[in-house]
Amino acid sequence: MNDFLFYTNQGISHILDINGLDHLCFIISFSLFYTFKDWRKLLGVVTVFTVGHCITLVLSGFNIVRINSGLVETLIPITIMISCLYNFKCLFLKTKQQQSSLFTYGVLLVFGLIHGLGFSNYLRMMLFEEDSILVPLFGFNVGIEIAQLLIVLLFLSFIFISNKISINRTFVLWCVNGIVTLFVIKLLFF
Amino acid sequence: MKLFLKIVIALLLVISGVSTQAAYHPLKMTFSKMILTEDHHAEITTKFFLDDLTEQIKNKYRLVNVDFSSKETNGIQCLQRYLNSNLYVRQKDEKIEFKIIETSFDEDHKVLIVTCKSEKRFDEKKSFELYNTLFFEVFSNQVNHLKYNGKENRFNLRQKKRDFYE
User: What chain A residue is nearest to B144 in terms of C-alpha separation?
Assistant: First the structure.
């Protein structure tokens, strides 16, 4: 298996691994209020998040930016918690989430920067000193994007199907957000 | 919105204060690189997550404190014994163990990098079997990655899945 495919596979595995669900939970939390009809807005949101984590993944990969990995691993669940709390606020107050506001994009960009630092810790673990960073970085990024889009697609499909079989959409959103929140609490405290 | 932000910030401060940051890395894996040296020995460099390794060595060898700072410390000596059983090569029906020659930490002191060299000469022209069962007895989801002598030879080593009746 050549290097690019290997690292693409690692990128996909890193997001989809059942034992490392933090990034998956974040993607679900920020996709919560979107449907297939909002695909353009969701694409914009995913792109902003992607740009954010690409920036720090590249900067960290080339050792331009280094943040303590312990701090990063604490910040990642915190970003998910913020997203979940905002979702609860929208659900509780029955307000429509500001799907494409500049503020949303700004927050997701910042969260993307944080998640990118988390990805870079993992990527750095895979590389040895003399290994070139370019192909692994690119391959890993591509893998992450593929996995993210897959998760978004699966989640939107799940929401679509649950609507079709007449399960109350708000109930489903409360449940999903609740499960993600519980998972984050487990990550933070246990 | 402002009230919401204040609540969020307050919660975050509380969370940051009491968070035990349990899951540094829920993914269980090691990364190894195996090369052949000029003196016909095999050299393996392996990266371990330090917390997993410390826990495993502590439990297995009943140590109170584990120190990996140099080759003479209890941690490295126990690790050598652990590697003798879990990381070796078989060639011509002979077991070739690896001796630790160098250790170092990454910048964050979260990863231990161990370099070990085969105790016997290694014939690169003959077939061999590499055994890498690091942490398999501890984590069912452990994956050990190995890159052998260049970019084209990569292996992901996992435990054999067990059936219920085994």
Answer: A126
